[in-house]
Amino acid sequence: LSRIPGASRWFSGSAVVYRNETKSAWLHVDPDQLADPRVGPVSRLTAQSMCAGVLDLTPEADLAASITGHLGPDAPPELDGLVYVGVQRRAPGNEFISADVRPLRLASTLPADSPFDSLRLHRQHEAAVNVLLRLFEALCHALPGESEPDS
């Protein structure tokens, strides 16, 4: 995204926050939420909290995306290949519009035509493409709870 000259006029930055401690330190995600087995790091609430943290800490940003999940190996069966993708917008007046967070169940086997040599790498690509599509969708259309942008 930032390879294009002048991208800094539109792209504020990114943060890769794999560890729970980093999610808390960098994005102010509540550590109790991350430690709670009913919520945890792979959850709708965590994806929402990550978006809110980005917008809260980056006042010049109008749109934030997050992804949190478990790509394996060694994932608990119920979390294996599960990611949550969140997108949240800042409304005029600095208010946040409710985050649109969607679960995504990634491929459970490596497709025969995959250009990748591991399921984990295939899943990373699948998740990254989904985030970019969700951002594109948010830029072109209103998020749930918003009115449609002017045509």
Portion of residues within helices? 25-40%
Q: What structural category characterises the helix and strand content?
A: alpha+beta
Sheet of most strands: 3 strands, antiparallel
Estimate the global geometry from the Cα principal axes. globular
**H-E order:** HHHEEEH
Q: Give the count of helical stretches.
A: 4
Q: Radius of gyration, rounded?
A: 16 Å
N- and C-termini, Cα separation = 25 Å
Remind me, CATH topology?
Maf protein
DSSP E strands, number = 3
CATH-defined architecture = Alpha-Beta Complex
CATH class: Alpha Beta
For the biggest β-sheet, the strand order reads 1-2-3
Poorly predicted ranges: none
- The overall average pLDDT, rounded, is 88
CATH superfamily: CinA-like
Element layout with pairings:
Elements: H1 20-27, H2 31-35, H3 44-57, E1 63-70, E2 82-89, E3 100-105, H4 119-140
Antiparallel strand pairs: 1-2, 2-3
Task: Please explain how this structure is put together.
32% of the residues lie in helices and 15% in strands. With 151 residues, the protein is α+β, with helices and mostly antiparallel strands. It has a single domain (7-140), classed as Alpha-Beta Complex (Maf protein). A three-stranded antiparallel β-sheet has the order 1-2-3, sandwiched between helices. The longest helix is centred in the C-terminal third of the chain and has 22 residues, at 119-140. It is globular, with a radius of gyration of 16 Å.
Short précis:
With about 150 residues, this protein is α+β, with helices and mostly antiparallel strands. It has helices at about 20-25, 30-35, 45-55, 120-140; strands at about 65-70, 80-90, 100-105.
